[in-house]
Amino acid sequence: MADIKRVSPQQAKKLIDEEGYLYLDVRSEPEYAAGHPSGAHNVPLMHAGAGGMKQNPDFLDVVRALYPRDAKIIVGCKSGQRSMRAAEAMVSAGYTAVIEQRAGFEGPRDAFGAITEPGWGPAGLPVETATPGGSYAELRKSAGR
């Protein structure tokens, strides 16, 4: 398993603003459409379906087609689990500047449903529901998939 740097939502926002990182939201398309970090791109690690979540077989192909291996990318999801898996896959594929944003968009929850660390949204960071050119449909098209 790769040693992947993890940052808080606030640290992620600072890296985006000050160092030009891109936020890659790996949640499903409906999750992304409901609200995501401003400017984020969406390449789902998994798709929501009738039988639950299923692996997106095009994940790495789309990422490779869109972003160079040295691109500065922060990977985020809902609570930090999918984003760590996506970051590990990207590092294994040769990406060198991948950071995982722990706590995701909403934040992990304890056994009672309470958020244990606020994610991007609950932390009060900028959120939008549409990013021109950022939806998975648009990115897949750009990637020729």
UniProtKB/TrEMBL annotation:
- Which SMART domains does the record associate with it? RHOD
Q: Where is the Rhodanese domain?
A: 17-117
Q: Which Pfam families match?
A: Rhodanese
**Region of interest: Disordered:** 122-145
InterPro entries, per database record:
Rhodanese-like_dom, Rhodanese-like_dom_sf, Thiosulfate_ST/Rhodanese-like
Output this protein's name. Rhodanese-like domain-containing protein
The species this protein belongs to is Sorangium cellulosum (strain So ce56) (Polyangium cellulosum (strain So ce56))
Lineage, top ranks? Bacteria, Pseudomonadati, Myxococcota, Polyangia, Polyangiales
